[in-house]
Write a structure and sequence with these properties.
By secondary structure, the protein is mostly helical. 53% of the residues lie in helices and 7% in strands. The strands form two sheets. Strands 1-2 form a two-stranded antiparallel sheet. A two-stranded antiparallel ribbon has the order 3-4. Helix 1 packs across helix 5, helix 3 packs antiparallel against helix 4 and helix 3 runs parallel beside helix 5. It is elongated.
């Protein structure tokens, strides 16, 4: 699989990591590999700490009250982690863009992927397309990649649960 590291895949990875925080550097590495990221070096506890900080900042973006606040927070993440774009052909997998210096620790690389991927997701799909589930007792974060941009629930299960709740409320005596 050729992963566009700055596309929706990394935003979905960020949501997965934020919803269920990795407990160890090894778990972080395994989950990133499973998402299609190529790891150039071992993931360290310092990388895990940097990832947790990036996810904390990213959750502020998710929970922002309006578009301007969301943009300000994404810009702050970009300023903290992204460098100027550069062409690279590492690993012989074809020329592509990196928004970071070569040789950075994995935690910094992941923070860059998350910030740039989130910025591209929001400007490409809509500033409202990153949110928490509409079911009150569910705090799951998701990236709305639906065709219409109207996804309100993290899963069909939550959508069904809310539909049943609304139906029962309408038909209650």
């Amino acid at each position: 699989m050729h992963l566009n590291p700055y596309g929706e895949d990394v935003v979905n990875l960020a949501a997965d990591l934020a919803n269920r925080r990795p407990a160890s550097a090894e778990e972080l590495a395994d989950r990133c590999r499973a998402a299609g990221l190529a790891l150039e070096r071992p993931v360290t506890p310092q990388d895990l700490d940097r990832t947790r900080a990036a996810l904390d900042a990213w959750e502020q973006v998710v929970d922002a009250d309006d578009e301007r606040d969301r943009a300000r927070l994404v810009n702050r993440m970009l300023a903290a982690s992204a460098g100027h774009p550069r062409l690279t052909d590492h690993g012989g997998d074809g020329w592509h863009l990196h928004y970071r210096e070569d040789g950075r620790p994995f935690g910094s690389v992941l923070a860059t992927l998350i910030s740039v991927g989130t910025a591209l997701h929001l400007v490409g799909r809509g500033m409202h397309r990153l949110r928490r589930c509409a079911v009150a007792e569910c705090a799951t974060i998701f990236a709305d990649t639906s065709r219409t941009g109207r996804q309100r629930y993290c899963s069909p299960r939550c959508a069904n649960r809310d539909a049943v709740r609304r139906h029962r409320a309408r038909t209650a005596p």
